[in-house]
């Protein structure tokens, strides 16, 4: 088969030409970046329960390294709890949610006022980056002169 292309070669060549670059998970890269200053959402009552349950489970099963086993055991335990037994975890979750809502109001207020603090931080980080570049660049220029 001199000079001839097999069917698989032509298909893969066509597919590779028509593919569009995508990011992880097939999402478009035009998505806005997350704001690191935005408050994290609070944990639900189940996850508050799991924080304590993981510690207890690790003490009882020190050789178990499986995350799935801990999650499965925690889920089974959560399902078996009565509403009265779940109440402390629900209360903690509600307290965290109230604090989160307060923080979100403050965050949204800062965003509405404008990025005054962000500008100061970004200028500082830019100057730090430029300082590093200047030091590297000056060293290279001295080497070129010699």
Task: Give the tags.
mainly alpha, 71% helix
The ordered string of helix (H) and strand (E) elements is HHHHH
Distance between the termini: 59 Å
Share of helical residues = over 70%
Give the uncertain stretches in residue-range form.
Answer: none
| Largest sheet descriptor | none
Decide which structural class fits the backbone.
Answer: mainly alpha
**Total strand count, please?**
0
Mean pLDDT: 77
Quaternary class: single chain
How would you describe the shape?
Answer: flat
Structure description:
The protein is built from five helices and no strands. The chain has 146 residues and is mainly α. Helix 2 crosses helix 4 (83-113). The longest helix has 31 residues, at 83-113. The N and C termini lie far apart (59 Å). The mean pLDDT is 77.
Question: Would you spell out the secondary-structure blueprint of this structure?
Answer:
Elements: H1 7-18, H2 45-60, H3 67-80, H4 83-113, H5 116-145
Helix pairs in contact: 2-3, 2-4
Summarize the structure.
The chain has 146 residues and is mainly α.
């Amino acid at each position: 088969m001199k000079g001839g292309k097999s069917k698989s070669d032509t298909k893969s060549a066509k597919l590779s030409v028509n593919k569009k670059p995508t990011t992880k998970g097939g999402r478009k890269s035009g998505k806005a970046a997350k704001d690191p200053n935005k408050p994290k959402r609070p944990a639900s009552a189940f996850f508050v329960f799991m924080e304590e349950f993981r510690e207890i489970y690790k003490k009882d099963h020190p050789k178990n390294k499986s995350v799935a086993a801990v999650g499965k055991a925690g889920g089974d335990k959560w399902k078996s709890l009565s509403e009265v037994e779940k109440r402390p975890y629900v209360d903690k979750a509600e307290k965290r949610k109230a604090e989160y809502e307060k923080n979100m109001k403050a965050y949204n207020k800062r965003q509405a006022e404008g990025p005054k603090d962000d500008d100061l931080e970004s200028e500082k980080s830019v100057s730090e980056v430029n300082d590093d570049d200047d030091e590297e660049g000056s060293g290279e220029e001295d080497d070129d002169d010699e």
